[in-house]
Amino acid sequence: MTERTRRLGMLRRMVPEGRSSRATAEGTARPAEARGGRPRRRGAQPKVVALGGGMGLSASLAALRRITGDLTAVVTVADDGGSSGRLRDELGVLPPGDLRKALAALCGDDEWGQTWARVIQHRFQSKGDLHEHAVGNLLIVALWEQLGDHVQALDLVGKLLGAHGRVLPMSAVPLELQALVKGHDPERPDDVDTVRGQANVALTPGEVQSVHLVPNDPPAVPEAVAAVLDADWVVLGPGSWFSSVIPHLLVPELLDALMTTKARKVLSLNLAPQPGETEGFSPQRHLEVLGRHAPKLALDVVLADEAAVLDRDSLTEAAKRLGAAVELAPVARTDGTPRHDPELLAAAYDRIFRMHGRIGPWR
């Protein structure tokens, strides 16, 4: 028995009985009992786990907290730029920035929640060492040092903020993202180079061929694995494809949990290609590269903005190869910017949860 298999077995035992085997039957909406899961009492809320990082995850969380009170964010920890990168280099800690953004997105709409959301997002402006440090980053790192426990500290920050959900790192060790990029050097357009660091990968010129993590077998946070195994729905994306979405599939224990869980899985596509890492990508190209990084992972639903899909047949075929059905819905803001509207995205998620495997009203 490998060490990874032993650890995953321990993590599965953290989950209530009846929640640890994979759902079957692609694209078929069936009651939880028929899928071998727990019967859900009328009026219960879905257990949702959202994976990602940065502003994409924040958009998803801002929508999901409107439709469920049982929400967990699992956040990438490969950021090496800005305030997070400086704290990581100086103190050897996990980069706190994406964790902070997720907590801010889970703050309530009341005065308390919005005040704390502004406070933790506030950045100092000075000519000294505090310049551009975010208050929330410093708060999170201070609690990590005080408590010596990543999860306990984040739970305490969430309690202070009145967050509508829980925030967990995907791994307890800082990770380095590396990418193989074709044409990174414009003078050598056919050469493939290694680009190191999430900040560099996100803005790299050239075509990203693949990404991997260093170390290449990082341990997952046990609570994150347990949340995936115990979920009703797992939401992956939107976000920076190579630097925020795919990294979750490169943590072996987390990928094993995603392939084992009975939860249904929805992949939320971006509204537009991202300059740099996905320049010129079609919606179906996003699915193809995700499938190359996790060829055994099956999905249930692919959500895309209807205005962003020019070739519906190709997207449908790409989704079918991942075992998924395509759901098109208006989820973009109406101001013309490539940003998700929280209310529209919430309505799309709610409709998907209702149509694919729901029993009775969630609310």
- Kindly report how far apart the N and C termini lie: 43 Å
Uncertain runs are: 14-42, 358-363
**What shape does the CA trace take?**
globular
Oligomeric state, counting identical vs distinct chains: single chain
Say how many strands there are. Answer: 10
Name some characteristics of this structure:
363 residues, alpha/beta, seven-stranded parallel beta sheet, 14 helices, 10 strands, 38% helix, globular, disordered C terminus
Written description of the protein model:
The strands form 2 sheets. A 7-stranded parallel β-sheet has the order 3-2-1-7-8-9-10, sandwiched between helices. A 3-stranded antiparallel β-sheet has the order 5-4-6. The longest helix is centred in the C-terminal third of the chain and has 14 residues, at 342-355. Helix content is 38%, strand content 15%. It has 363 residues and is of the alpha/beta class. It is globular.
Short description:
The chain has 363 residues and is α/β, with parallel strands linked by helices. It contains 14 helices and ten strands.
Annotate the secondary structure layout.
Elements lengths: L2 H10 L35 E5 L1 H11 L6 E5 L6 H10 L5 H9 L5 H11 L13 H13 L2 H12 L4 E4 L6 E7 L9 E5 L1 H5 L4 E8 L7 H8 L3 E4 L4 H5 L6 H9 L3 E5 L14 H11 L7 E5 L6 H10 L3 E5 L12 H14 L8
Parallel strand pairs: 1-2, 1-7, 2-3, 7-8, 8-9, 9-10
Antiparallel strand pairs: 4-5, 4-6
Helix pairs in contact: 1-11, 2-4, 2-14, 4-5, 6-7, 9-11, 12-13
